[in-house]
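Quick log. Single chain, no ligands specified.
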Amino acid sequence: MVNFLLSVQQSINLVINSIISVFKVLLMSKFSVERTTASKPRCGILGNGPSLNTSLERDIEFIKSLELFAVNLFSVTEQYTQLKPRNYFILDMSFLNPNHVCKNGLQHMASDTTWEMNLYMPFQMYNSAYFQSFFKDTPNIKLVPYNYTIVTGFTWLKHWFFKRGLGTPQCQNVLVGTLFYAVNMGFKEIYIFGADHSWHEMIRLDDDNNLVVSDKHFFQQKDFDIAVKEKSYMSQQLFSLHKAFYGYEVVGQYAQALGVKIYNASARSFIDVFEKIKVNEFVNKN
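-> predicted structure:
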């Protein structure tokens, strides 16, 4: 009886979430979405986790053979002008904050990009005069806005919206959104690097019972701490991590439905949705 009631409740939730998603798309999404296509059958996504340093040393030739995606603040690194990624994906609305470090990332993109590159951002960001001001004199950078409208509900409905760029999975982390966009671009194989996702190891309470989160990227020499100033409980932090990892499950199911293979080639990673590979062994085997 309990299982039956749970099944009924799940079915009702699916119907409700599907109806809500339809209204969200109708009210929030742009229906004239520009689509870009893959120039190669394989791409690589460069996360900013510390393990990317290992991948850039160990797997650099393989990485260079892929059509590359960079994310977030990759543009502030020396590797940006060395690897010249064809694609750059951002999602965080901090890129609209003139007092945030993200401003530095935009400035580097605008000044350092001497090759043709597609820059993907949500429509909300694209429509910002502040954001646009960085790229008014950058002929090498093509701005490609996308809908960030989270849809849930029946799988067939979600995938219908996904394919048309009208809806997306929840992207608690920018790599989820990048993976999703890469799948829609038509790549057959996608390789992820630098996706450590070891945040749970860096959450702690200080002596005054304040929640503190350490953060580190591949281009930083040491960790730095972020004090969560507003009232926050450990459960909320862990729920955020759940949403981040669950996003990979949704993208993984969508990629599988389209016959797209996603490989996690990160030297260190807690993502367990995709096949984990070591590049040298994988290349020799294939």
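The chain has a mean pLDDT of 91.
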